[in-house]
Amino acid sequence: MILIFFSSEGWESWDVERRPLIPERMSVLIDEDLRFEDGPGMPRPTVAVNRWLRELPASGAPAPNSWENYARAIKEWMEFLTEHGVGLFDSRDRLKLGLSRYAEHRANGPLRQRFAASTWGQHMSILSMFYRWALEEGHAQAEPFTYKTARALFHGTGREVRVNLAVRRTPKPHVTIKYLEPDFTELFLNGLRGLTPDGALDTGYRGREVARNAAVGGLALATGLRLQEFTYLLTCEIPELPARPTLVPIPFPVPAGVTKGRKFRITWISYNALVAVHQYLELDRAAAADGSAWHPPRRWGEPLFVTASDARGQRRPPAVGHAHPGRATPAGRPYGRLVRAGAEGRWRAVHRVARGF
């Protein structure tokens, strides 16, 4: 089975009147023979699977990375069933036998095929979601899972939930956040700065952009931002420095355009880490970016034009208003968050505070 990702680039030449209603970067599953049906009115299971995948953005899974994870879980399940002569929408007895063999395979099979309990639980949750949808839509007559009813408590409020018996039970960790040791953090930042472990200049190091690397490394450690988030921050999205040094953490809004699932949130950053970022923006980055003749490639889509930007918003001609700093291109690519700034109308790569980090 083949997994591909949809792109609308060049759709005007596809002999269709309008752009297909398929989300950009949507996962698509295709059988090895590149066919979606066995005959007129005889669609293959991949047709239903692809329809379910296309509905994910409106079903609580807006992130392209989630679409890929869901598609890979279904793909591996379908390939395993096919290998053992079981259909995706077979009878309940056949599906339950297939699930039992699949559980044994993922727990005790070849090392490369084994799943940790958490990964297995994630796959079972995805398959359960798919089969519930397939039953509601009339594609399946049965599902392989057995459930029990349990009572969950949250903030003193209880409610009944369905528990999938195929999910392995795992011990609850005492804490879910792991912090780096201070000595390792210092060693890591010294390496980014091009320094030796004791803080002296490393004469054998010939790295580039050490000021940027150190500033962004400190930003990532202080805020806990994901790689995608700190890589594609706009310069205007960096909080302003307080008037005076403070030991109190400073709020750091994370725009929806770069977060996982497009969910806005607020994290925190230390004063010293924020000072290092501002020093980089005002000195090293300004020297590297000002006057640049760089222009965004056309394949990145239509950019967002602005003439001024700050922490509160942006000015977008011909109207003046708040253009969302977290906006992405129609294709949904984070690297498409481009602006055109400056009196000369030059393109600036201000969308990448940490480009290449």
Written overview of the protein:
- With 357 residues, the chain is an alpha+beta fold.
- It has two domains: 2-164, no CATH class; 208-348, no CATH class.
- It has helices at 45-54, 64-83, 92-108, 117-137, 182-193, 210-223, 227-231, 271-289, and strands at 2-5, 27-30, 147-154, 157-164, 250-254, 265-269, 308-310, 313-315, 339-340, 347-348.
- Helix 2 (64-83) packs across helix 4 (117-137) and helix 5 packs antiparallel against helix 6 (210-223).
- The longest helix is centred in the middle third of the chain and has 21 residues, at 117-137.
- The two termini are 35 Å apart.
- 22% of the residues are buried.
- Mean pLDDT is 83; it is low at 318-357.
Write the SSE topology.
Elements: E1 2-5, E2 27-30, H1 45-54, H2 64-83, H3 92-108, H4 117-137, E3 147-154, E4 157-164, H5 182-193, H6 210-223, H7 227-231, E5 250-254, E6 265-269, H8 271-289, E7 308-310, E8 313-315, E9 339-340, E10 347-348
Antiparallel strand pairs: 1-2, 3-4, 5-6, 7-8, 9-10
